[in-house]
Specification:
The protein is 57% helix and 7% strand. By secondary structure, the chain is mostly helical.
Length: 168
C-alpha cells in the first residue's frame, strides 16, 4: 500500500494544478509588491539603508555626467534588489512553513504546501522550494509549466524540494 498523505481533514484534498497555482502567484505578487515598495523601501530610505538619489533629467547631462550618475545610483539599485530578494524569500519560506502552510495568495485560492508524505514543511525545505523557483524561471518557465503535466502537479522547484501543493 502506498504512503497516503496525513491530513487532519477527513476529506482528502487533491493536487493543485497549474492555473490555480498561477492565480495564487499573481495574488502573492501583488502582496509582495505592497510589502516591498509601499512599506519596506520607504522605511529603509528613511533609515538611510537605501540611499536617496535625486531624479535627474538624463538628456540634460553630458556623457561623462551620465556615467557618473549611473554609478551613483548603483548602490540604490543593489540595496533595492537585495531588499526584494530577502523579502520574497522570507515571505514564501515563513508562510509556507507556518501552521497555515500557505502564502496569502495560496490561502485566497485554497491551496497549501506539504512534503511528499503530506506533512508540514520545515523552513529549510520552504527555503529550498523558494530558491528552486529561480531554476524554474531559468528554464524559460518550463519548470513552472511542468506543474500542468506531472502526475502530482509538481513544478521543478517542487521536485527539487520534494514538496506538493494541494487544493482544499
Amino acid at each position: 500500500m502506498e504512503n497516503q498523505p496525513i491530513f487532519s481533514d477527513p476529506i482528502q484534498p487533491g493536487y493543485a494544478g497549474f492555473w490555480r497555482r498561477f492565480a495564487a502567484s499573481f495574488i502573492d505578487g501583488i502582496v509582495l509588491w505592497l510589502i516591498q515598495v509601499v512599506l519596506i523601501s520607504p522605511l529603509l530610505s528613511r533609515l538611510g539603508i537605501i540611499p536617496v538619489v535625486e531624479p535627474v533629467e538624463i538628456n540634460d547631462l553630458s556623457d561623462e555626467e551620465k556615467i557618473r550618475y549611473f554609478f551613483s545610483i548603483l548602490p540604490v539599485v543593489k540595496s533595492l534588489l537585495l531588499t526584494m530578494a530577502i523579502t520574497g524569500w522570507l515571505y514564501y519560506a515563513l508562510l509556507e512553513s507556518s501552521i497555515r502552510q500557505s502564502t496569502i495568495g495560496k490561502m485566497a485560492i485554497g491551496l497549501f504546501v506539504t512534503d511528499e508524505e503530506g506533512h508540514r514543511i520545515s523552513f529549510a525545505r520552504a527555503s529550498a522550494r523558494y530558491f528552486g523557483k529561480y531554476l524554474s524561471s531559468l528554464t524559460l518557465l518550463i519548470g513552472y509549466i511542468m506543474a500542468g503535466f506531472t502526475a502530482k502537479k509538481q513544478a521543478l522547484h517542487d521536485k527539487i524540494a520534494k514538496t506538493l501543493v494541494w487544493k482544499k
